[in-house]
Write a structure and sequence with these properties.
heterodimer, A: about 400 residues, alpha+beta, three-stranded antiparallel β-sheet, globular, B: about 280 residues, three-stranded mixed β-sheet, 14 helices, elongated
Chain lengths: ~400, ~280
């Protein structure tokens, strides 16, 4: 399958990772970046071999945060896995909830009420905005802009997290979606507050762009660094903004139309060069598109129940079968693969984490660049270690 | 232009520096122990057990059905059923939790216990200042530490509590509508739960059919449907109403009966009063 006209003959020349020759002067230096390096977003280690400043080998080492997520999912009921999905990518717990709910709903053929679908879209797009904003903030933090852009991003994120808290009861571990709808309904006051926050978001994106887009330091550090070729990206299963920054038009919201995404008008921003700047730019534009979706969803939000009254909470036993629910999470394609043998818990529970799979091309992007750029390239991948290690 | 970005950034810094002296909404720091931000109503932290009345031990709504223990994802709830049954606040003999511990160092505040509880006995608290120097015992809360009054629940989650009230009012209205439709049925239904409970109501219970029967004799046309309606619901009624094993039977009616004995008692005189007219 070729999502967007990638020529297959190009893939024959796919050869990774490239071998970087050392210049033969001096000794090679092996450095362990992490697991407690402040730039590694948690506990992640990169074993880097350096020739002077140049990276000639990079080995990602992860698993420090392994929590047996998949095994836990197979050991307990379908509902009990829902709060654990919050803890995968703890920045975007609502999209994780949605992906898991979607997989289970596919498994049992559960319908979702209209209002719940709209609420899911609203919450997913709010999640996307706060995730992209903080990702860009962290990227600039790693570039040396210590604090300020991150604080600007977190100021907006805080408003969105307040919305999450007042609706779901928790800022990050929302545990909001259920098989067949959502747990609680949004009050008119909450919707009013959401409209207010959404109305303020374009100004924030404008401000962010005004300061960052043409900033010399940002351009000098980002453009042409950490280039990812589209054929490699497709072959390695990269998804999300990282894939779209290489120019591949693949957005699951458009491709799969899960939920009710076919009702909204939005565009998919695409990059051209696949470098850090394009990834940054794609995220920036995606925030704008998310605001468009939010405005449409908030306008059309119908009245009605948020939970299918026939949906079961306890004694949930799907008939034997399998399902794969996937969504366009802020970081890429998040999928849950479930096999049921008719019992109260899944026979197999598998997560397709976007962070983990996007991380596999880290070495290809880093080889040949300076060690200072490794931090930046790693930051532009946008990972959360809770999802990488599971 | 080279240096453009730096100038823009410095202009913004100057603007914010000046703004921080004049704009009130920018003063976001809260002096925490003295000042507190109000928590949103939906906020949740760790579970607590609701009790009605003044005595926490007698009023606990929990009937030790162990559903929450089974459904709890990190398995942080430990329940031991009592050997004996004691009359709960309704007067029904019920199993009660001899031991109900929640290890809040394990609890992940997911609220699933609240969702699955058929008796509205466990709710989420908003207390967060739970630090203790006792790492193991201090975070294992027993049922006495978990018990909170219904008033407290109303205080921390007013909307949720008022929703519960609305549900109860709806239930009450349903009972009244039934009373209008079938006088005898309503009388039997209203009398059923307190039959085992208060000594006063058993007197009222026989009184209702006695009053209704003369009515059927006198006004044949009006009450023709009443005995038919009465006989049909009478048979299933004792099951939810007087079902002594609360753990097994969890019909909505049983749930409501367990929740609001006071309200059903209030409804009773009206239900009995109507057939007289």
């Amino acid at each position: 399958m070729s999502p967007s006209g990638i020529k297959t003959e190009k893939l024959a020349g796919w050869n990774r990772p490239p071998v970087i020759e050392s210049d033969g002067e001096g000794e090679l230096l092996e450095v362990a970046m992490g697991p407690h390096h402040p730039s590694t977003h948690g506990v992640f280690r990169m074993d880097v071999v350096l020739d002077g400043e140049r990276v000639i080998k990079l080995k990602p080492v992860f698993g420090y945060l392994h929590r047996n997520h998949e095994q836990l999912g197979e050991r307990q009921s379908y509902l009990a896995s829902m709060p654990y999905t919050d803890r995968l990518d703890y920045f975007c717990s609502l999209t994780n909830n949605w992906a898991y709910a979607l997989a289970v709903e596919k498994l049992v053929g559960q319908e979702v009420p209209e209002r719940a679908e709209y609420l899911r879209v609203i919450l997913a797009e709010l999640t996307r905005i706060q995730n992209h904003a903080s990702t860009i903030g962290f990227l600039l933090q790693e570039m040396g802009a210590s604090g300020t852009p991150l604080m600007y991003a977190f100021r907006e994120r805080e408003k969105i997290l307040d919305l999450f808290e007042s609706l779901t009861g928790s800022r990050m571990m929302c545990n909001y979606m259920r098989f067949g709808g959502c747990r609680v309904d949004a009050s008119p006051a909450w919707l009013e507050a959401t409209r207010k926050v959404v109305a303020g978001l374009p100004a924030f994106v404008d401000e962010f762009e005004r300061f960052l887009m043409t900033n010399e330091i940002l351009m000098a550090r980002c453009q042409g660094i950490g280039v990812l070729k589209p054929d490699l990206a497709v072959n390695a299963g990269i998804s999300g903004p990282m894939l779209r920054a290489t120019g591949v038009n693949y957005d699951i919201r458009k491709v799969d139309h899960y939920g009710i995404y076919d009702r909204f008008k939005f565009r998919v921003p695409l990059g051209d060069h696949g470098d850090i700047y394009d990834r940054y730019m794609v995220r920036m534009l995606e925030m704008r598109e998310s605001i468009l979706i939010l405005n449409q969803a908030l306008k059309d939000l119908p009245a009605g129940p948020v939970m299918d009254p026939k949906a079961k909470i306890r004694n949930f036993r799907p008939k034997a079968g399998e399902s794969y629910g996937r969504i366009e999470a802020p970081k890429g394609e998040l999928g849950f693969y479930l096999i049921s043998d008719g019992g109260p818990n899944p026979y197999r529970y598998r997560v397709r984490p976007p962070s983990f799979i996007n991380l596999t091309v880290l070495e290809d992007m880093c080889l040949g660049s300076n060690v200072a750029d490794v931090v930046l390239i790693f930051g532009s991948v946008d990972i959360v270690l809770g999802e990488v290690d599971r | 232009m080279l240096g453009d970005g730096i100038l823009k950034g410095l202009a913004e810094t100057a603007k914010n520096f000046a703004g921080s002296f004049v704009s009130k909404e920018r003063m976001t720091t809260v002096e925490y122990p003295e000042e507190r931000l109000p928590l949103p109503e939906a906020a949740r932290n760790f579970p607590f057990l609701v009790y009605d009345g003044d005595d926490w031990e007698k009023g606990l709504r929990c009937v030790a059905c162990q559903i929450c223990e089974k459904e709890c994802p990190p398995k942080c709830i430990y329940i031991e059923k009592s050997k004996d049954k004691k009359p709960d606040y309704v007067g029904k003999p019920q199993i009660y939790p001899a031991k109900f511990d929640i290890d809040i160092s394990v609890c992940m505040s997911c609220q699933i216990c609240v969702e699955v509880c058929p008796f509205e006995a466990i709710k989420m608290n908003t207390e967060f200042e739970l630090a203790t120097d006792d790492r193991f015992g201090g975070l294992l809360l027993d049922r006495k530490e978990l018990a909170r009054s219904n008033e407290y629940y109303h205080q921390i989650h007013p909307t949720e509590a008022s929703e519960v009230d609305a549900r109860l009012a709806e239930e009450k209205a349903k009972v009244e509508a039934k009373a209008k439709a079938a006088a005898e049925a309503a009388a039997a239904k209203a009398a059923a739960p307190p039959a085992a409970a208060a000594p006063a109501t058993p007197i009222a219970k026989p009184a209702a059919p006695v009053e209704a029967r003369p009515a059927t004799a006198a006004k044949a046309a009006e009450v023709a449907k009443a005995p038919a309606a009465a006989t049909a619901p009478v048979a299933p009624k004792p099951v939810p109403g007087t079902g002594s094993d609360g753990a097994a039977s969890m019909t909505p009616e049983d749930k409501k009966a367990a929740e609001t004995p006071a309200k059903t008692n209030e409804g009773e005189p009206k239900a009995q009063g109507e057939p007289k007219e």
